[in-house]
UniProtKB/TrEMBL annotation:
Residue ranges occupied by any P-type ATPase N-terminal domain in the UniProt entry: 167-221
Source organism of the structure: Trichodelitschia bisporula
Chief localisation class: membrane
Protein name: Phospholipid-transporting ATPase
Residue ranges of coiled coil: none
Gene Ontology annotations of biological process type: endocytosis; phospholipid translocation; retrograde vesicle-mediated transport, Golgi to endoplasmic reticulum
Known catalytic reactions: ATP + H2O + phospholipidSide 1 = ADP + phosphate + phospholipidSide 2; a 1,2-diacyl-sn-glycero-3-phosphoethanolamine(out) + ATP + H2O = a 1,2-diacyl-sn-glycero-3-phosphoethanolamine(in) + ADP + phosphate + H(+)
Segments of this protein annotated with the region Disordered: 1-158
Record's compositionally biased regions (Basic and acidic residues): 78-101
Alphabetized UniProt keyword annotations: ATP-binding, Lipid transport, Magnesium, Membrane, Metal-binding, Nucleotide-binding, Translocase, Transmembrane, Transmembrane helix, Transport
Transmembrane spans: 1072-1091, 1121-1143, 1149-1167, 1179-1200, 1206-1229
Amino acid sequence: MSLPHQYHQPNAPDSVTGDSDSDLDLDLDELDPSVDHSSNPQRARDGHRTSDFGGRIPLRNLRAGRLRSQQVGEQEDEQRLLHDEGHHESAESFDSVHDSDALLPVYGRRRKRQPESTLSRLGTNLRLPSLMADSPHPPTANGQADDAEPEDEHDPASNRTVAIGQRQATRFPPNAVSNAKYTPWSFLPRTLYNEFSFFLNMYFLLVALSQIIPALRIGYLSTYIVPLAFVISVALGKEALDDIARRRRDAEANAEPFTVLRFGDSSEVKTGSKGKKASNGTINSEGISEIVKPSKDLKVGDVLKLSKNQRVPADLVILQTIATESQTAEAEALKAVEEVHSLIEADADTPSAAASNTHAAAGPTGEAFIRTDQLDGETDWKLRLASPLSQSLDLQQFTKLRVTAGKPDKKVNEFIGTLDLVEDPDAPYTEEENQRPKSVPLSIDNTAWANTVLASSSTVYAVVIYTGSQTRQALSTSASRSKVGLLEYEINSLTKILCFLTLSLSCILVLIGRLDGEEKQREWYISVMRFLILFSTVVPISLRVNLDMGKSVYAWFIEHDEGIPGTVVRTSTIPEDLGRVEYLLSDKTGTLTQNEMELKKIHVGTVSYANDAMDEVTSYVSQAFGEAGDLVTPSSVFMAASSSATRTRREIGSRVRDLVLALALCHNVTPTVEEEGGQSVTTYQASSPDEIAIVRWTESVGLQLLHRDRTDMVLRSVKSGRDTVRVRILNVFPFTSEGKRMGIIVQFLHGQNDTSDEIWFYQKGADTVMSTIVAANDWLDEETANMAREGLRTLVVGRKKLSTEHFTEFTRQYSQAALSLQGRDIAMADIVAQFLERDLELLGVTGVEDKLQRDVKPSLELLRNAGIKIWMLTGDKVETARCVAISSKLVARGQYIHTIAKLKRKDAAHDSLSFLTSKPDACLLIDGESLSLMLTHHRETFISVAVLLPTVIACRCTPTQKAQLASLIRSHTKKRICCIGDGGNDVSMIQAADVGVGIVGKEGRQASLAADFSITQFHHLTKLLVWHGRNSYKRSAKLAQFVIHRGLIISVCQTMYSIASRFAPNALYRDWLLVGYATIYTLAPVFSLVLDRDVDESLANLYPELYKELTGGRSLSYRTFFIWVAVSVYQGAIIQGLSQILVGISEEAFKRMVAVSYVCLVLNELFMVAAEITTWHPVMVFSIIGTALVFFGSLPFLGGYMELEYIITVGFLWRCVVILAVALVPPYAGKVIGRTLRPPSYRKVRGV
């Protein structure tokens, strides 16, 4: 909290009083045509009108300027004139009184070297180009320093000194955003490594390479090489397309244009030219131009010009801010000043000059608000300030500034640096003309980090300090990783089992053959290898092809679902994981809520108002403020009630009006007027959206905030359009997370100038702290609890009247406490508590609602019923998170919320964990400080307890903590984690999750670009998981097992033939029969299973419990796998065994036997596909019938493998019918019996 006068600089001079002009004040420099006439500080001090009046005079001098005596001014002028005659140069001291002037260059003579200061020695090769000093990097012909990159790269572990607007001595990272996983050089190595890290692909690579060896070659080499190459090509193509799409989206963000100031050679600035700021924001100064750069081309040292609602592209230090709303008035004032100057009027007290002072003072405010919800998740706007040193400078003087900053850091709430003004090193040193560099400290209040948004109606000039990978946002973001679905790992394990079975079978066959004395012409290991190659179809190469193609189909279904428009699949390799999620980690701001506050309810002790009852509040306000002709004070409000009303109604009306007046005054909101569509629209700026909601509500009931600055506030009646309340702001006590309250002391005015003796202290805050500050009552606790149960954010409002003596004594002691060097904050808080925060009159309670995203409540309930444990991770306050958790039904009605906040002792942490262990149905609410302690000292214990709780809410979380929690849950539970967010602060969490979902936010698309799936609304997540996740997993599981069955059954046929042919490793089906079976003859019917579904979408939403079964992985488990292995062994043995029995295996009957077994094998697969389909689709029917027709149509071309004449005989037909009946009937009968005895859940809900 600061007193009004403490907003100015500590060394600011006193106000000008009684100064006058005379002819003696004429600047002698005007007589010298070689001297810049506008560079004399005496003219600025004495009110002479120059062409840059509004832009050149510092704000502090207009508000509080103190002139030296006339004699001192004359002596300075004479000394300067003499100095100019001797050296043709002009210099000026840069102290708290003087403004800075342009210095004329000196050529053709040797300069006298002054002793170097420490700062000068620190960065000799970073010296800025000035009018007097040589630049280490001379400007080019166009007046701009060379843009070529420096050769040396800056050490990121060291501090940096940034020359503003100039080329830097070292090279910094480019300001490019990149969410790509690969570079052109790393793509092939990384993707090939990822592909061959799977056992399946490595197995087939070895099989393909084995065909190079003549002794192991079976059939054509292309039979093994082409399928593997095709699989790898499909996988690499998918990864390439995904990464290209990411790069295109990054290119859009990197191409966002920003206005950059280009500083030319200072010597080219003409005499008398100043940096005037025109109403349209263009710099009308020679030597300075505005250029537009894409975000990726921004460099350290560039000066950006930002306007309202513009994203900050890099980490910046704010140099200067100018209120947009005052630019027009400022331009008019400048025009008037120039006209007066042209007539050489010397009277500084003319109305036009006074108006110019007023407009100029209203221009460069030095303040700006930014929104940081994309960075840290906090909804409150942050006030940012320009350094007083740079705020008072002209734009062309920015090149004299240097920023010294620390090394890149991920801490978004900390910054330490200095801003240095480097003056001419050759100017003579005097007591009055001190030319030593001036340095001021920089803090977090002077910065704007990347991906924040300028919220205030102002023009901001800021210098780039950190770019690209060194920004706070990038350092808090983890690197992208290649995500692999859980189904892939499960299939990888199953293929290892199949390979082991194949190896065992090969060894057994070779061993039996050796024991029987057969097959000795080859070495035993050669025989084993040939058997492995023959049985390679057991581990089907087409498995990866089918699964990858299936993933593409699932992605197409998701993106073209009209129920979730705008959804984008950015990582198409993990759609099955959408059906396996067990933990959902969600951001709050912008994800669950819209970050739009609305006051829904007020309570004044005996009655509450909400919804339509607000009309009654409006009538009370209209009576008190709408009909009064004079300014209203709290005392006059009581006399405004209608005499015809009952006593009770008058009392209620008085309470309502007092509460509305308190809410209209007790805040930190500033109104701004903007032009939209040719109409003036009033918008509000504040650090808290709660306060904006309250001020908007007071306007809706009839009391509008018209004007607010640091000293005054004006309220206007909406009904009458007259100013009804004027107050002088004496003190403001801003809100802090520790105090949880804010207060203001105001003095009411009776007229334009007359001040009443009514001094009031208003305060509002959380009920937990205000309950002990307000006077005793019997309703506050009950009403705040009722509002909290409704999910409203409650504020308790009170007031206290102060006598003049009481306020004077408070001010004296408060100012004295503010000077304390130790324990200052505690001392100041004690004085406030002693004098103000005692027995406040309780006016009422307000309930503010943070609007939820559409259908958040039913969505969370459905996900909870689906067995998903939901965690809410937010950077917002504890109270805010609690209210949102209740209003969104994240916390069930009556569920106990265990709060852990500000935990500092390890033993206390252990007690809390012990309590949660005994109450597993509770909701945990923990803040960032306590979470950090838990993760440091009780990591395993904490996570083992937390993962069992139905709901966890973590507040004040940093982006790093969010990512740590996601990784910790993954590693501890081995379950699938889904993280969803909309801001840049959620990127790390999204990338650390198994499934990352990004919402396209209002302020940016960082989360959306970095996520695996991008959606536009939170409620779309339910369909993404419950419907598309279910279908993707169930379909892939069925498809994978059927492809394994298709490969295993043909291997069993090969085994039966090898046994019958005395264990010789000879091929049963060669070349095209082998390739055709896996492609043309079975591919389409088997792949059509990706269109199958067991339940309709309505049933999936109606019974979310069906989703819970998916997390157990029952659709693809060891049990189902071995069932399919048994079916494959049975059918393969029947088909090949009966074919050999019914036809024979002699050399003459071989082709007839192959014809019977091969036809039965293909038809068996078609019938099995039809038996596995749950819901028929036209594509399925077409694929099965079409494939059968293609198969029979191709038989005439297979004469080299089978006897065609035999196929058209009756003997061939009846043998096929018998074999198919024996192969198909028992498995299908067993399936029907199993469904009857133990029907699956989907059949129960379908009623079949």
